[in-house]
């Protein structure tokens, strides 16, 4: 959703929007970890594993986006969003 906002509201291309969304996601994850740490309610194994996975995914995603270009990022993003819409529709219609 953040990528959509960066593209539609701020006018960024998909490559730049994807990079900014990754940075914002990392910042929010870090802030959440600090909040949980300050409250004494964090599980170090889970928190550190998720942090490493997020950083690794961000690195691989950014590297792939730079290699393949903004057209590929746009197509991949729209494919994932389309799949999510189909899945949510399937779950919604199946629960009726």
3D architecture notes:
The protein has 96 residues and is mostly helical. The protein has one domain. 86% of the residues lie in helices and 0% in strands. The chain has 4 helices and no strands. The chain has helices at residues 2-8, 14-39, 44-68, 70-94. The radius of gyration is 16 Å and the shape is globular.
Q: Care to give the gist of this entry?
A:
By secondary structure, the chain is mainly α. It is 86% helix and 0% strand.
Straight-line N-to-C gap: 27 Å
Overall geometric form:
globular
The major sheet is characterized as: none
E-strand count: 0
* Total count of domains: 1
Present the secondary structure layout.
Blueprint: H1 2-8, H2 14-39, H3 44-68, H4 70-94
What keywords describe this structure?
single chain; 86% helix; 96 residues; 4 helices; mainly alpha
């Amino acid at each position: 959703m953040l990528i959509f906002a960066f593209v539609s509201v701020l006018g960024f291309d998909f490559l730049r929007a994807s990079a900014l969304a990754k940075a914002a996601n990392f910042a929010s994850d870090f802030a959440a970890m600090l909040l949980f740490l300050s409250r004494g309610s964090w599980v170090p194994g889970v928190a550190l594993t998720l942090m490493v996975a997020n950083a690794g995914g961000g690195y691989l995603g950014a590297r792939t986006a730079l290699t393949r270009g903004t057209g590929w990022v746009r197509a991949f993003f729209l494919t994932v969003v389309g799949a999510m819409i189909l899945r949510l529709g399937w779950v919604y219609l199946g629960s009726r």
